[in-house]
Design goal:
There is one protein chain. The chain is α+β, with helices and mostly antiparallel strands and 305 residues long. It folds into two domains: 202 residues, no CATH class; 73 residues, 2-Layer Sandwich (Alpha-Beta Plaits). Helix content is 62%, strand content 10%. The chain contains eleven helices and four strands. The longest helix has 26 residues.
Length: 305
């Protein structure tokens, strides 16, 4: 049976935005909406000095009344040109899309929603949570909203071992400080840094939390039976390791199993059913990579994809 040839338009879009563009785009749109609401409906009205090029755009808005979204695009142009080679074609294209979309949402869609007029502390928390989740969703698609994000991702591309949240906080803290000093709002600096911290924390939790899980180390006399039972109840692979008791010198089986957090209860019950005397140690795993676990690429080059 002959395979259906992909539509030329789909091939063209895939070359520009990546082969998963149909799955990534709705997530990016939702992320842009959350960031726009967080910035316009919470941060702008409270007068917070914000992070990144959004923060610089808000400074220009408060000083000269210039549209936030339009200025965000204008400020992005020179940085985008400088960072193009470092971040790759597909990342660049997706970032331009998200940058334009989030800018339009800030200027035209977010004003349609009510503006929060409560206390600044709650406003800061809402800004950090909404925009933080929005940015994290965008980052998880190996994209960004441009501006300082281009710089963040360029640094991340060269330093994959450094957590994304650490880079975000370090780069954006200076812009928050400038905004606070310029408007003599030192309380605002504290709120801005708090928002920045929430951004960074949520970005790390959402992105790296996708690959988080638990690791079970089970010492038992029935290694094969335990392994088969775990596979039966949650279809997780296991590793059997020969172990020797340090005091008794008796040979035992060590069953190692990495799983999602919600699956650990099933594994505990399975072990008890097979060997009630088994000794089980459960550890938190910040990241689990491999078959059966999601892979999130952040600041990866086109070739890496």
């Amino acid at each position: 049976m002959a395979q259906t040839k992909p539509h030329p338009l789909n091939q063209f879009i895939s070359r520009i935005f990546g082969r998963n563009w149909m799955k990534d785009t709705p997530i990016e749109i939702f992320g842009c909406l959350l960031t726009a609401v967080g910035v316009y409906n919470f941060a702008v009205n409270a007068g917070f000095p914000m992070t990144g090029f959004t923060g610089l755009s808000i400074i220009l808005y408060r000083l000269f009344g210039l549209p936030i979204g339009i200025m965000h695009i204008v400020l992005n142009i020179p940085v985008a040109i400088l960072c193009y080679k470092l971040i790759g074609r597909q990342f660049f294209a997706r970032s331009i899309f998200c940058m334009i979309l989030s800018s339009l949402f800030i200027d035209y869609l977010a004003p349609l929603f009510p503006v929060y007029e409560g206390g600044r502390l709650l406003c800061a928390i809402c800004t950090g949570v909404l925009a933080g989740i929005g940015y994290a969703l965008i980052y998880s698609r190996n994209s960004s909203t441009g501006g300082s994000d281009f710089v963040v991702m360029a640094v991340k591309a060269k330093n994959q071992h450094v957590k994304l949240g650490t880079i975000i906080f370090a780069i954006d803290a200076a812009i928050v400080a400038v905004g606070g000093i310029l408007f003599k709002d030192f309380d605002g600096v504290i709120y801005g840094l708090m928002i920045n911290y929430i951004y960074a924390m949520i970005a790390d939790r959402v992105i790296y939390g996708i690959n988080a899980g638990k690791l079970a180390l089970i010492i038992t006399d029935c290694g094969r039976a335990v392994s088969e039972k775990i596979d039966e109840v949650c279809a997780r692979g296991t590793t059997l390791i020969s172990a020797v008791g340090g005091y008794t010198q008796e040979k035992r089986d060590l069953v190692m199993c990495a799983c999602a957090t919600k699956e650990m209860v099933m594994i505990e019950e399975a072990v008890k059913e097979v060997d009630p005397k088994a000794f089980t140690v459960i550890l938190e795993s910040n990241e689990v990579l491999g078959e059966g676990f999601s892979v999130v690429n952040v600041a990866k080059s086109d070739a890496a994809e």
